[in-house]
Write a structure and sequence with these properties.
Keywords: FAD, Flavoprotein, FMN, Heme, Iron, Metal-binding, Monooxygenase, NADP, Oxidoreductase, Transport. This protein is of the alpha+beta class. 47% of the residues lie in helices and 10% in strands. It contains 21 helices and 12 strands. A hairpin with a 1-residue loop joins β10 and β11. α8 runs antiparallel to α12. Bound molecules: protoporphyrin IX containing FE. Protoporphyrin IX containing FE (HEM) binds next to α12, α13 and α20.
Length: 508
Amino acid sequence: MAEATTGSGLPKGFRSAEQGWPELSRIPHPPRRLPLLGDVLGASRRTPLQDSLRYARKLGPIFRRRAFNREFVFVWGADLAADMADEARFAKHVGLGIANLRPVVGDGLFTAFNHEPNWQLAHDVLAPGFSREAMAGYHPMMLAVADRLMDHWDRAVVTGRAVDVPGDMTKLTLETIARTGFGHDFGSFERSRPHPFVTAMVGTLTYAQRLNTVPTPLLIRRAARRNRDDIARLNSTVDDLVRARTASGGGEGDLLGRMLETAHPETGERLSPENVRRQVITFLVAGHETTSGALSFALHYLSRHPEVAERARAEVDRVWGATATPGYDQVARLRYVRRILDESLRLWPTAPAFAREAREDTVLGGDHPMRRGAWALVLTAMLHRDPEVWGADAERFDPDRFDPQAVRMRPAHTFKPFGTGARACIGRQFALHEATLVLGLLLRRYEFGSDPDYRLRVTERLTLMPEGLRLRLERRSPDAARRPPVSASGTVEGAPSDVRCPVHRAAN
Ligand code: HEM
């Protein structure tokens, strides 16, 4: 699949900012720019996003960076980002980081160019797989995978071992998407090392990110060879999975079943076997990396904010009562737990930027002319910290920012962890349901003890993850989980003051 790069090593169709922004010189860039190399002084190959956050604070709501022969524009001010959300004038841009994944997933849903027919076809075939009915069908499987995590964590409690949060969240979310989407079990919790699919996936994501920071892929030939092996591993894993399904049948209503069986409702077209392979890899990757990061950051903040954890536990105990298996509808009722997730995704949107391109010549924010096809990265991680929107204390973790009234007071398009427009995340509800359910279960079962010496470090490989996060767990007493905590005044915490009979809690 040589289509994705040109002889210069740049993705086909890549436009450096000089070509698209007639008044580029008015957009600030970091000081100490070097000829040929660009803005490399003080920048790290491993943390491009965190470097961009630093520059953003110094350079303002729109700025540019240059690495070798490529220049990019970054946008994060709320007004400019809102302008870029205008679907009439802007569309998704399959930019560097994403285009680098095309050798792996080609015209799969996430990496397809807007004009490629397989995007609409796959979108229409798969969208019902994320409907409310489909999600309710996935719910028992999500619960079953969460049980495996809790078995694993219970053993850690018994042996007094700290748990590896990002590692275990990755196992959980991979098993969840594999099981709900494709009826597959990677056996992640039974393995001492990551499944080879996960190793190959991390390899390809890391390689795709590296390509952004080298002048030509010729400099990383060994890594390119490893990447080819990784891609072969991903393909063969998925081919085995599809073969097994075709032989055994079943799986009606899951994503693979839809891909193999469903014709487009209007055109009657079906996905080709090659495209099915690309979509399965897309969903296995997109469906777990970002959610595992979101859960990991949320657990980090919960361990650092015991008062938030207590309030969330009170909610879980009140809404779920003693039921061992909360039902589908009981998950969306954990409103405070959901705010914790939103606030974690605000501070660390695990897909920390997305790219938008001008459909026609236009002027961004009434100030910056752009030619058709010119593009910029919306730096979500900084948009979510814009002090004009989030206040001078934007760095502070505070789930009450997502209290409905506070949300109503904020301008539109200021919280975008799932992207925007027609190409926004198709798995948003899936991710939020899974993550809220799992946080609820974990809050109900454990107290999270953090290592006081741990300082949050964030690793970047296209998505974000708290590096080296470990927690010491204690089991809550079964009684505590069954009974809503009672405050000194004798009222049930977290309960609205009207009803709440402690005997008939199920009615709450
Ligand atoms: C917290 C979890 C998640 C976050 C933060 C997230 C974030 C995003 C973002 C920002 C985009 C837009 C990218 C762009 O504009 O270039 C996107 C697209 C996408 N996401 Fe997610 N995602 C999450 C979970 C999931 C899950 C669970 C699935 C699948 C089950 C999924 C599948 C996809 C797919 C297929 C696309 C491409 C959609 C299209 O272009 O039509 N994501 N996601």
